[in-house]
Amino acid sequence: MTETANARKIAFATFVRRALEEARATRAWSGTEVSRRTGVSRQTINRWVRGDWASDPEAERVVAFCEGLGLDPTVAFAALGWDRTTSRRSAPPPPPMDPDVEALLRRLVDPDVSDAEKFHIRETIRYLAYRPTLPLGVRKRGDAAS
Questions:
Q1: Among 67, 79, 82, 98, which is most exposed with the fewest C-beta within 10 angstroms?
Q2: What is the pLDDT of residues 32-51, one digit of tens each?
């Protein structure tokens, strides 16, 4: 293994380790919870922490890990030695957003809204985002009853 490849592994492992420590300290998330919220398996995260990977991590997984923890993926890309600023394709415009979701997002960035209320908004959104969905047949029976 080249010295550069080893340095990249150490840098990325340090980034992942710090991200996990921050998630534990500020959100009291376990490794399982981090995995659930990011969509990246615990095994993959553990390999990243150990620097135990033969080929670079998949960019999509790195982005999912970062977004699930509220981190900027470009920091992870920098640790990996990736330059993602020059080859970025123009993204398609985002789909129209529901007005209620827009209202929630405005409240989350409003300095006049208390931290406690922002916490409750985030926790409610997390609950809704990650709750299991009912099978289609069960939903239809429930709709018919109402």
A1: 98
A2: 999 999 999 999 999 999 98
